[in-house]
Write a structure and sequence with these properties.
Strand content: under 5%
Radius of gyration: 17 Å
Helix content: 40-55%
Largest sheet: none
Low-confidence stretches: 1-7
Number of helices: 5
Order of helices and strands: HHHHH
Structural class: mainly alpha
Distance between the termini: 32 Å
Mean pLDDT: 81
Length: 120
Amino acid sequence: MVAMKKSMPAPDDLAGLAREAKALVAMAFRNGPIENVHAGKTCFTCHGKREYSHITHAEMREIMKSAVDHLYTFLVLKQSDHAAYEALLRLGERYTTAWDEPVLTKKVCADFQFPSLPEI
């Protein structure tokens, strides 16, 4: 496994959200069906060639459905049982120790004409 390099840490007032984002992605996405695709053998014919699809439509649908279902469940848990949600975040953090810190994506706000993100 390749370790990801660390980025600048989130400001103290956003550190909790950074922790939450990483843990939720680990639990809802990384540990879902994408892991089965990732664990498969490398295709030497198409490896590194972006013009080839590496995931079928059915696999992509399964991956995204799983992520949405997991996030929905986690957000309901956040609203209804804070202690269980905190336990979920702690479990998710076990997978993210070598991950980069998240970076605010200001382009998202511009693309969708949302109010701007806070300056950090």
